[in-house]
Amino acid sequence: MTTQAITTAGAARGTSEPAFTRKPKDTAGDRAVGAFSHTVLVIWSLIVILPLVWTLITSFKTTREIFASPFSLPANWNFDNYVSAWTQEGIGNYFLNTVIVVGFALVIVMILGAMCAYVLARYTFFGSRAIYYLMLAGLTFPVFLAIVPLFFVLRNIGLLNTLPGLILTYVAFALPFTVFFLYSFFKGLPDEIAEAAAIDGAGEWRTFFQVMLPMAKPGMASVAIFNFLGLWNQFLLPVALNTNKDNYVLSQGMASFASSAGYAVDFGALFAAVVITIVPVLIAYVIFQRQLQGSVSQGTMK
Q1: What is the mean pLDDT of residues 131-148?
Q2: Please, what is the average pLDDT of the chain?
Q3: For the residues 288-298, what does the mean pLDDT come to?
Q4: In angstroms, rounded to a whole number, what is the distance separating the alpha carbons of residues 33 and 10?
Q5: How many angstroms separate the first and last alpha carbons of the chain?
Q6: What is the pLDDT of residue 164?
Q7: CATH architecture classification, 90-265
Q8: pLDDT > 90 fraction of the chain, expressed in percent and rounded
Q9: pTM higher than 0.85, yes or no?
Q10: What is the CA radius of gyration of the chain?
């Protein structure tokens, strides 16, 4: 199509602009930058993916095969290592303890964090700013400095070396970040919606749970993912506050398994235990990645 035809087509629509504009050609600099960025992304992807693939393949090999040829394929593809890790090494019990602790802690911290962030973002009262800044200060406070006070507090209330004590500690650990993350989401919600709910006769509780909380769903999903990752991989708190082996979580169980027998450890079962540990994290991210991307895009548009 010639330039005259393009202009005529634009004039037929009552405008003086062309019907479309040609995309400028990529310059040599643009192509160089694109090639460099793609190369870096490919290298970074290989750095991340190859160790995971190697761990997965190694989890099907025996200890003898691992030391004889670390990068070869296993002679027999079976789940003996997974069965051994789950039953003989106690990974099944550690996995159940982790699910209980992280599950209850995540539900409690999401509910309490959302309620606290909503009140601090939507209501003005004496001390509200002080509470918010104290929450922010909790993010900067090193966890290892609180280990000794937490130890004595849990011992005095009879929750030391118990799963409920670990749940409460996880909630306290994740609450400041949850409030900080959700504060901006509730702050950005329009006041007219809450006012309309009040006019329709909805109370404060109903307005929060049925109107405002669903509108913050992207933020809730994102902070739930971050909290899940942090609590699932938590190591320092359970090591210091949960020394009863029957109540070990996965991070403790993996450390105990890896250091129990030195070089005599069953490395095939150890790699199988590693796969069991990381699979729930990958599944959670795959399921909620759309909500995570949506919340990030919303945050950048505000």
Answers
A1: 86
A2: 84
A3: 60
A4: 35
A5: 42
A6: 94
A7: Orthogonal Bundle (1.10)
A8: 38
A9: no
A10: 27
Looking up tokens 């849990």 gives 154
Residues 254, 260, 264, 266, CA torsion sign: negative
Comparing CA positions, the residue from 279, 228, 263, 281 lying closest to residue 64 is 263
Q: Which DSSP string do the residues of the chain spell out, in sequence order?
A: --HHHHHHHHHHTT-SS-S--PPPPPPHHHHHHHHHHHHHHHHHHHHHHHHHHHHHHHTTS-HHHHHH-TTSPPSS--SHHHHHHHHTS-HHHHHHHHHHHHHHHHHHHHHHHHHHHHHHHH---TTHHHHHHHHHHHHHS-GGGGHHHHHHHHHHTT-TTSHHHHHHHHHHHHHHHHHHHHHHHHHTS-HHHHHHHHHTT--HHHIIIIIIHHHTHHHHHHHHHHHHHHHHT--HHHHHH---GGG--HHHHHHHHHHSSGGGS-HHHHHHHHHHHHHHHHHHHHHHHHHHHHHHHHHHH-
Residues 6+ apart with CB under 8 A from 135: 116, 120, 175, 176, 179, 180
Q: What is the domain partition of the chain in residue ranges?
A: 23-80, 90-265
> Among residues 177, 120, 189, 110, which one has the least CA distance to residue 143?
177
Return all residues near 7 (Cβ < 8 A) that are at least 6 apart. 18
Q: Tell me: pLDDT of 174 over 60.
A: yes
